[in-house]
Amino acid sequence: MSNILAFAESRGGELRRAGLEAVAAARVIADAKGGQVHAMIFGAAGIGKHAAVLGAHGADVVIVVEHEGFTHNNPEAVSGSIAAKMRSGDFGGFTCAASATGKDIAPRVAAKLGVPLASDATAFTVTASGITATHPGYTGKVLQTVTLTAIPAVVSVRPGAFLPKENAKAGSVESMAPAVDPSASRVKITETATGNTAKLDLGEAPVIISGGRGLKEAANFKLVEDLAAAFGNAAVGATRAVTDDGWRPHSDQIGQTGRLVSPDLYVACGISGAIQHLAGMRTSKTIVAINKDKDAPIFKLADYGIVGDVLAILPVLTEAVKKAKA
Amino acid sequence: MKIAVCLKRVPDMDVRFKIAPSGKAVDETGLKFDISDFDGYAVEAALQIKEKLNAGEVVVISLGGDVVQETLRKAMSMGADRAVQLKHDGAPVDSFAVASALAAELKDGGYDLIMFGRMSIDTAHGAVGAIAAELLGLPCVTAISKLEFDGGQAKMRRELEGAYELVECALPAVVTIDEGIARPRYPSLKGIMAAKKKPLESKPAQLPAERLALDAMALPPERSAGRIIGEGPDAVPELVRLLKEEAKVL
Questions:
Q1: Residue A82's domain is classified under what CATH number?
Q2: A115 and A264 inside one domain
Q3: Is the residue at A83 inside a domain?
């Protein structure tokens, strides 16, 4: 029971960084147990082309499940096939990212196997008795440590917590037919649409530029997008006030009831720092805040703060970042 | 339509938490409690469905000690018709155990739609709804921000990172609710009075053995105090220098 199965998440035929992070987390458990990492990828014909990348990031075996019914995510057939694979082999655990898709798949897999799961772990250790995982709760204000004694262990890991590592294992590739007929799923995803124009999304970007009410109107988000473009590896986020007003789509919202992110760099533009917002970004590695009110709560958290008019500062910062990147 | 909404009592998050002497819980002294955020959205969404159809029943269910009766009354003061308390000393951290107890109650309830918040705002595992659906053998769509009906078919939207999915499934089904679906109403005085007379059934929770144990709760390390490096556009060069040389993110 020393092998670990990882969910190699994809969307629209592309492998997601979340998939490589699941492999990285699986690698930690497999290495502690002296086992192998098997990565399972689902998609329409052609998805198998990502097997090499998965192998290069630590998967000993890549299991490719190609079927037209996986053109969109298909939670019932994906979780059913994962559970069947887990039952058929020598698997002691399953990992996936705690992304929107992973958080949907993990509990289904756990329930099919009749085990609990450790959700959204930011770190874990493997011991003889099980897996001890750290999981931020209470909007990030309390760290919970849980021990999972059930076998197999099902663990989802917070995006950004387990970094993909080049770890060439020259993974072998197997193909597998879906264990559950994808066309028989009761839940059907009819469309997967991109919510905004940004190339990078909040789940993957190492840099996030976020805007709040201090931008004064929706059109001024252009300044935030310009700064994101100058970085080149940045996604655009927003506060709840702004998504509630319809300036940005709900999927851009960072906070207690939105996305929880921990990028390398978080730039808060015209954001005062309501508890609701801080809950979603307080674990960012470096935080920059630009706000006109020097007493705004965001400055208590920011590594680097600039007091002033965000509309005047952003264009100057964008130019300076462009120059630094050139 | 007969709708069940499962909800959890959680502390108000707008405080600085302290850890209880046991090291395994937050100190509840002085904390205010309410319906968990996403569960509140679920209650509101359920009530709106009932009001639109002008028929049906909304049943709210919560697992926990007698303190959850107050939470259930709050949901009934918003408009839910009746409530069930699955009595247990506190709420277990093991999602599988909680889902099993809820599924046992939901199984023969004849519900067309079973709703959960997409996660509780305190322990934040986000797993109970989907596990309960599996145990009940019902289709499940998680973290939905829109819900409409077309005949017996539910049409939904799920938010992903930077994208969304349009999803369909037939009823009966389990859904878990994300933000954006509905803002919970405030109970009216009339609603609060009416809730006192609505039925609240209390019965023991059927919990299996837990296989996920909470070892400890702790406060995260404090971030070093914030630093203001300057004012206005003139501070930009210093910021860029620090991002490059100190934070090494540029």
A1: 3.40.50.620
A2: no
A3: yes
Q: Could you tell me the residue range of the domain that residue A69 belongs to?
A: 3-184
Task: Find chain A residues with C-beta within 8 A of B163's C-beta.
Answer: 11, 192-195, 201, 251
CATH code, domain carrying A239: 3.40.50.1220
**What is the C-alpha separation between A310 and A269, in angstroms, rounded?**
6
What are the tens digits of pLDDT across the range B11-69? Answer: 998 888 999 999 999 999 999 999 999 999 999 999 999 999 999 999 999 999 999 99
- Whether residue A306 and residue B223 make contact (CB cut-off 8 A), yes or no, is no
Q: What CA dihedral angle connects A72, A75, A80 and A86, to 10 degrees?
A: 90
> Binning pLDDT at 50, 70 and 90, where does residue A195 land?
low
Q: Do B219 and A142 touch (CB under 8 A)?
A: yes
Q: How far is B94 from chain A (nearest CA, A)?
A: 6
Determine, for residues A194 and B163 on separate chains, whether the beta-carbon distance falls below 8 Å: yes
Cβ contact, residue pair B229, A312, below 8 Å: no
Flag the least confident range among A86-95, A110-119, A246-255.
Answer: A246-255
Mean pLDDT computed over B107-135: 96
Given this model, what pLDDT does residue B222 score? 80
Nearest residue in chain A measured CA to CA from B245 = A324
User: How far is residue A234's CA from residue A253's CA, in Å, rounded to a whole number?
Assistant: 15
Residue A196 belongs to some domain of the structure: no
Q: How far is B34 from chain A (nearest CA, A)?
A: 14
Which residue on chain B is closest to A312 by alpha carbon?
Answer: B233
CA distance A161 to A201: 17
Is A173 found in the same domain as A112? yes
- Verify whether the Cβ–Cβ distance B244 to A324 is below 8 Å: yes
The reply to whether A249 falls in a domain is yes
Enter the pTM of the model.
Answer: 0.90
For residue A194, being part of any structural domain is answered with no
Q: Between vectors from CA B145 to CA A15 and to CA B195, what angle results, nearest 5°?
A: 145
Q: How far, CA to CA in Å, does A46 sit from each of A42, A67, A70, A245, B114? A: 10, 9, 11, 41, 37
Q: What's the pLDDT band for A102 if we cut at 50, 70, 90?
A: very high
Q: Which residue has the tokens 């290069």?
A: A56
